[in-house]
Specification:
Layout: H1 2-55, H2 60-81, H3 84-103, H4 107-120, H5 124-157, H6 167-177, H7 181-206, H8 214-222, H9 232-247, H10 252-255, H11 261-291, H12 298-307, H13 311-324, H14 329-342, H15 347-357, H16 368-380, H17 384-397, H18 402-414, H19 418-431, H20 436-448, H21 452-465, H22 470-483, H23 486-499, H24 504-508, E1 517-518, H25 523-533, H26 538-550, H27 554-567, H28 572-584, H29 588-601, H30 606-618, H31 622-635, H32 640-652, H33 656-669, H34 676-686
Helix pairs in contact: 1-2, 1-3, 2-3, 3-4, 3-5, 4-5, 4-25, 5-7, 6-11, 6-16, 7-8, 7-11, 7-12, 8-9, 11-13, 12-13, 12-14, 13-14, 13-15, 16-17, 17-18, 18-19, 19-20, 20-21, 20-22, 21-22, 22-23, 25-26, 26-27, 26-28, 27-28, 28-29, 28-30, 29-30, 30-31, 30-32, 31-32, 32-33, 33-34
């Protein structure tokens, strides 16, 4: 009996110790969770403050980046807390991101933000209105662009292209500026119509002969695909018919010489289409070549080239095809088929030769409009210096090119060269004083140069010329606000909203009436929706990977990151995210491999160095881990966890003094981090006395 009592007492002590340990662990977890929530709340507040300050002074990618930072921070806070305050902060950030994304015309980002906001059910009408606005703005933009293209085509069709702002070059630039499939389709339609008229004219000319089976041969010829040759029998019949037409050419005496069938057909085609439609076809060819979208453009250009009998008019289509040849080899083949038809000793080859030689590289332009087109493409690709050089050349060739002056001014504004930007815009206005956009653009430049009175005057003049020009209204509202004219600023913003009720730029001017909330709880479902709409969108897969990682769905995060890499292996962030998921799952070797690939892609990625260093240290390779973490700190001295991990690695190697220095720096950077108490305890315990 005595032994039984001792056993019971011993068991009681053991149970008490186990219970106490469990209670301590539970309390420690609760404390850490609370600290993590507090840190997330502070991070959400900080990023929101930075976004609020930054969005007043910047637009475009920078504003979008600040919005995404605030959005992600609020999502984490909401995920960790889940209370009403966190949900409201999340909703606010989502709506704000949606507004900035709308301003930048980043439709998928805007949809994701508003759908996420909708899932919070904080303000359903507001979220629903945002989603409707995305659809409306996207549709309105397409409608506006379609109307702009239609206006150019209508002017050309009516023979009034010279009256277009900037003349013919201005019309061409307007088309190329709207480089999108819709524009290509509209131009292709015009070109197809011209091709049908050209072929019908030539067919009718063939039918004036009495060659045997000429009707069948003419039909077979008309049905040929671009670049396709007629069979030998058909070619022989057409050649005989052509000789007969030459013999009966009524214009021989007027021409003073015999004309070839091609010359007779080219003349008949010109008379059939008329000067305006011929100029429209030329404009369409040039625009399709400079836009650079091969899909939907190559076949219409090839059809026009095959139908046109005038060598110089055909050369314009061939040049356009050569410009598309880098992405569409068939385009060059179609041009080559025309050279075979026209020969290399005439005007066709003389004009097209240089384009053909540069079909696999960048062609050096020879005209002002050519330099403007290349400058536009260079600027779109990020080559601002090359674009500026091309604008300089264009203006040197044509000092009256107002559209080139305005475009060069925009580049100079971006570079901070306000004096010369204003000089360009002033000259452009002198050349085209009725162009409202030029006045509005100079207003922007003056505002950036802190000349608010001059900016307001320019916006006002732009609105006198175009009362519905919303950018001028919203910009004048901002300038008036900055000048202290709140009544005028409110009036302009109100008018702008009457014209575009859901324009986020206009609503930003009424910041105090906009609620900016975010729903980060719906992150995964929203990313899934984006993937449903565009299954090949690598960014959407990568973002869902990040969201699933945050939710500790590591298998899902790993699968999504892998899919993002399959779709687009170029961004380092895709590999970094998969490396993090692998690390969290305990696959340290896989994490090191992914982080190594990220570093190969972008050696400046401090996060990749930090993650690889942490993974190597976790594997026990402290030497290489410390090297990686040191590189991460060199690239980004504020990367707190690089200091923490290097401190831990140094402590493991026995370098206590180095570990304490790193951990103290970690505490300076992240004093509220959940690891801070443990770090402080270590420092206190190990600091030399």
């Amino acid at each position: 009996m005595r032994r039984n009592r001792l056993l019971a007492a011993s068991l009681s002590v053991v149970l008490a110790v186990v219970f106490s340990s469990a209670l301590y662990v539970l309390r420690e977890r609760t404390r850490r969770a609370e600290a993590e929530r507090e840190a997330a709340r502070e991070e959400a507040a900080r990023t929101w403050t930075e976004f609020e300050a930054g969005r007043r002074s910047t637009t475009g990618d920078r504003a979008l980046a600040l919005g995404l930072d605030a959005f992600q921070a609020a999502w984490r806070y909401s995920a960790l807390s889940g209370d009403a305050e966190a949900r409201k902060a999340a909703f606010r950030s989502a709506c704000a991101l949606g507004e900035v994304a709308l301003q930048a015309e980043q439709w998928s980002v805007a949809v994701t933000a508003y759908e996420r906001a909708a899932r919070l059910h904080v303000d359903d009408p507001r979220a629903a209105a945002g989603l409707r606005e995305v659809d409306a703005r996207r549709a309105r933009l397409q409608t506006d662009h379609r109307a702009a293209v239609a206006a150019v085509l209508s002017a050309a069709r009516a023979g009034r292209i010279a009256d277009f702002p900037g003349g013919r070059d201005g019309a061409l630039f307007s088309l190329v500026r709207l480089a999108e499939p819709q524009t290509v389709s509209m131009l292709a339609t015009e070109l197809d119509a011209a091709s049908r008229m050209l072929r019908e004219t030539t067919r009718s000319l063939y039918l004036t002969s009495r060659a045997p089976d000429i009707e069948g041969a003419a039909e077979r010829w008309r049905a040929l695909a671009p670049g396709q040759k007629p069979d030998a029998e058909t070619a022989a019949i057409l050649a005989r018919a052509g000789l007969e037409v030459e013999m009966h050419d009524d214009a021989r005496e007027r021409a003073g010489r015999e004309r070839s069938f091609r010359e007779i057909a080219a003349s008949a085609q010109g008379a059939s289409l008329g000067e305006a439609r011929l100029d429209l076809a030329k404009l369409a060819c040039e625009a399709l070549g400079w836009i650079g979208i091969a899909d939907g453009a190559v076949e219409p250009l090839g059809s026009y080239l095959a139908s046109e009998e005038d060598e110089l008019r055909a050369a314009v289509a061939a040049e356009a095809l050569c410009r598309l040849g880098r992405s569409a080899p068939r385009a060059v083949r179609l041009a080559e088929a025309a050279w075979e038809r026209f020969g290399v000793n005439g005007p066709f080859w003389s004009q097209v030769r240089r384009s053909y030689q540069h079909a696999t590289g960048e062609q050096e332009p020879t005209t002002a409009s050519g330099y403007v087109m290349r400058a536009f493409r260079r600027r779109e690709s990020g080559d601002a210096r090359g674009a500026l050089e091309d604008y300089d050349r264009a203006i040197a060739l044509d000092p009256k090119a107002s559209h080139a002056l305005s475009a060069r001014a925009a580049l100079r504004c971006d570079a901070g060269d306000m004096e010369r930007a204003l000089a360009d815009l002033t000259r452009a206005i002198q050349l085209s004083p009725q162009d409202a956009e030029l006045w509005s653009n100079r207003g922007v430049a003056r505002e950036r140069a802190r000349d608010l009175d001059g900016a307001i005057a320019d916006y006002t003049r732009a609105l006198e010329l175009a009362p519905r020009l919303v950018p001028a209204l919203s910009n004048r509202s901002g300038a008036r606000r900055d000048e202290g004219d709140l009544v005028g600023a409110l009036a302009d913003a109100t008018r702008a909203l009457e014209l575009e009720p859901q324009n986020p730029v206009c609503w930003l001017l009424k910041a105090d009436v906009l609620e900016k909330k975010d729903d980060l709880d719906g992150a995964i479902s929203c990313c899934s929706r984006a993937i449903e709409l565009d299954p090949r969108n690598a960014v959407a897969w990568n973002r869902r990977s990040h969201a699933r990682d945050t939710r500790r769905d590591l298998d899902g995060a790993l699968a999504d990151a892998t899919r993002a890499i399959e779709l687009d292996p170029r961004p380092a962030i895709h590999w970094i995210n998969r490396g993090h998921a692998r690390f969290e799952k305990g696959d340290l070797q896989g994490a090191v491999a992914d982080d190594t690939r990220a570093i190969e892609i972008d050696p400046s990625q401090a996060q990749a160095w930090s993650d690889r260093g942490g993974a190597r240290a976790a594997r026990g390779d402290f030497e290489k881990g410390i090297i990686d973490l040191t590189r991460a700190i060199e690239l980004s001295p504020s990367l707190a966890y690089a200091w923490l991990n290097r401190g831990v690695a140094r402590q493991a190697k026995g370098d206590i003094a180095g570990a304490i220095r790193d951990l103290e720096r970690f505490l300076e950077l992240a004093p509220q981090d959940s690891e801070a108490p443990n770090v402080k305890a270590f420092i206190v315990k190990n600091r030399p006395r």
